[in-house]
Amino acid sequence: MDFTYDDEQQALREAVRGLLATAYADHDARRRTVADEPGFDRALWGRLAEMGVLGLPFAEEHGGVGAGPVEIGIVCQELGRVLAPEPYLASVVHAGGLVAALGSPEQKADLLGRLSAGEVVLAAAVTSPGGRWASRADGVRASVSGDAWTLDGVADPVVAGGSADVLVVAAELPDEGGTGVFVVDAADVERTGYAAADLTRAASVRFAGSVATPLGAPGRDLAPSIATISDLTRIMGANQSLGVMQSQVRATTDYLKSRKQFGVTLNTFQALTFRAADMYVSLELAHSMVDWATMTIAGGDREVVAEAADRVGLEVSRAGRHIGQEAIQLHGGIGMTAEYAVGVGTAHLEVLDQWLGNAPHHLSRLAGRVTDHELVEALA
Amino acid sequence: MQLELSPADAEFRARMREFFTTKVPQEIRDTVLEGRHLTRDQIVESQRVLNAEGLAVPHWPEEWGGQDWTDLQRHLWHEEMQRAGVPIPLAFNASMIGPVIAQFGTEEQKSRFLPDTANLDIWWSQGFSEPDAGSDLASLRTTAVRDGDDWVVNGQKTWTTLGQHGDWIFTLVRTDPEVKKQAGISMLLIDMTTPGVEVRPIELIDGGHEVNEVWFTDVRVPGDLLVGEPGQGWTIAKFLLGNERVGVAPVGATKRALAGLKTVAAAQMEDPMVRARVAELENQLLALELTALRVVAHSAGGEPHPASSVLKLRGTELQQAVSELALDLAGPASLASRAEEDSPQEGWARRSAPTYLNYRKASIYGGSNEIQRQIISRTILGL
């Protein structure tokens, strides 16, 4: 059992942190980036590709680096730290994860190779308007005529859907055949992009007889695989939230030390410092759960990963509400402003949780299983 | 980063589990697992079983019965004891005065006290807090005045847990009223049968007799029972309160208590609200346990991980939260807390109100949770 990073992992963190600092050293840079389409920095995306970050999860034979979940988690934490709007979770972890899990060797080599090289952006379309966190598609239907598949329906929100070149789409198979996953060229859909509360981008995507290629062998029910990739994405999203919360706690303590009212700095007031201490408690508890959940992935057991996703989703969502709200409150009015990172971080935490799974959702699932075990075992 | 225990640590854990579940008397373990009160004899018997196997004081120096374990192994030892319902070795002996004597004591004090302390042949009590010295311990007023080779002690200690069982008491006393308050404090070991020592019970809100006042009236203490140097008491007290990195959060016992509620209140586990509450607590306990593991894995041989201050704060909050759940699950049956033994109400339900009330202490003792927040905000966050 070991909760420490090795030298290579430390080096990866330093490298990613250094690169992100060139783009988002101050919050103004992020504000400028999200003000215009595509809502992220394509030049930075290219440098992440050159560094091998976009190909981290994928096998070398498919153009990737073949790194493990801990490395991907490190990248997500660093992205969260600076509220980077780059669609790493949506494109690499989620959509890329679906391709890596389900694609044919040719599809993997093609799509993951180009994704790793920064040549295409992928997006996963798995949620219907008003939909929740289901692994069964209900907003998009697949039809087949001979070997030719087409899709009809609407997916929304599709995170990074506006800028994506290729969509990875969950769709209902004919004859109640379950849920299939298809690759669709973005040129063959109608889409309307929009900004979420944190100004990252999502889109409403309409499929109308859109030409679709099944990912892997056609016609199988892939709901279990979709669920697993969602679980993996949930855990990586928790890593990203951890980075956000670390920045918020740091910013808040710095602010308490520097901001003066009544002629003294705010850290003179115990009413405030105790609340900062409680933020730290929430942060460290969430940190432990994030590390644990990330480490469970390496074991490769779907049920273990599903359990870990629920547990870390609940913990990080609770911590995010606490830290995100207190960060604004302890900053006072400045925390409400768009020009200051702390409140935008609170928006980012919410977008991550509502996209990937919020506290009531995960708690409901955990509550359903609560009598299936006597004790929760931290160590297998 | 790796989740699995090493083969050696997994083997270690299995060995602990085997020993605790087969060698410590079942009646004692059942008493702990059901949340009933242990007798003095049970606590002594259990510690002697552990000590005979070298498992009572593993964190002491090896020459005095300690084991050359890693912090992780100590954590596993501690967790497995709680899991098996084995009483934790008496903290006053094993965690507090033993390490102090081993570190600061004379050779004579070591050989006189340490073997008996490990084996619970001496039951130690703690004489630190006073009526006007709680969190502000350094303002203590009990005095010790030199008289020839002896010290003469006068004053009052309070909140002395299980002092009614005590053979000896380790005390902080003021030996020099002229210097800065911390610098005038010394540690004295006092035989509780000495004339002038009086233990008076304090009845608590749970109806139990757990803590006491200890009064000292012209108590004559031989000079060789001062630990370290005169004036070194504050340093020793900080060592005593700070050297426990492992076991500050009662994770295993709280997990056990929560798991027990699923069984004894099985019918109520159909209620979605109850299930949600249990699930939330299980998750919070997992986060705490993982944090404890992070701390032990980081702190081997060096400074404690900063997150260790989280453990006491959160550990006691969750201990209290589980006691609240138990009381809510007991409902009307909890009113029978002081009913006779032949009450038709179940034992766990009858104990739930006193336990709930008793655990309010947890966020007060061992450095109140407000002191913990102070430590976090000052030491960790630099506020």
Automatic annotation (TrEMBL), chain A:
Q: Which cofactor does it need?
A: FAD
Q: Which UniProt keywords apply?
A: FAD, Flavoprotein, Oxidoreductase
User: Which Pfam families does the UniProt entry name for this protein?
Assistant: Acyl-CoA_dh_1, Acyl-CoA_dh_N
Domain named Acyl-CoA dehydrogenase/oxidase C-terminal is located at: 232-362
The Acyl-CoA dehydrogenase/oxidase N-terminal domain is annotated at 7-119
PANTHER family with a match to the protein in the record = ACYL-COA DEHYDROGENASE (PTHR43884), ACYL-COA DEHYDROGENASE FADE28 (PTHR43884:SF20)
The family this protein is said to belong to: Belongs to the acyl-CoA dehydrogenase family.
In Swiss-Prot or TrEMBL terms, this protein is called Acyl-CoA dehydrogenase family protein
**Organism the protein comes from:** Nocardioides furvisabuli
Automatic annotation (TrEMBL), chain B:
Q: Identify the residues that the record assigns to the Acyl-CoA oxidase/dehydrogenase middle domain, covering every copy.
A: 127-218
- Report domain Acyl-CoA dehydrogenase/oxidase C-terminal positions: 231-380
**What are the protein's UniProt keywords?**
FAD, Flavoprotein, Oxidoreductase
Q: Domain named Acyl-CoA dehydrogenase/oxidase N-terminal: which ranges?
A: 9-119
Question: Which cofactor names does the annotation list?
Answer: FAD
Q: Which Pfam families match?
A: Acyl-CoA_dh_1, Acyl-CoA_dh_M, Acyl-CoA_dh_N
Origin: domain of life: Bacteria
InterPro entries hit by this protein: Acyl-CoA_Oxase/DH_mid-dom (IPR006091), Acyl-CoA_Oxase/DH_mid-dom_sf (IPR046373), AcylCo_DH-like_C (IPR036250), AcylCo_DH/oxidase_C (IPR009075), AcylCoA_DH/ox_N (IPR013786), AcylCoA_DH/ox_N_sf (IPR037069), AcylCoA_DH/oxidase_NM_dom_sf (IPR009100), Mycobact_Acyl-CoA_DH (IPR052161)
Q: Which family does it belong to?
A: Belongs to the acyl-CoA dehydrogenase family.
Question: Which named protein is this?
Answer: Acyl-CoA dehydrogenase family protein
Q: Where does this protein come from, organism-wise?
A: Nocardioides furvisabuli
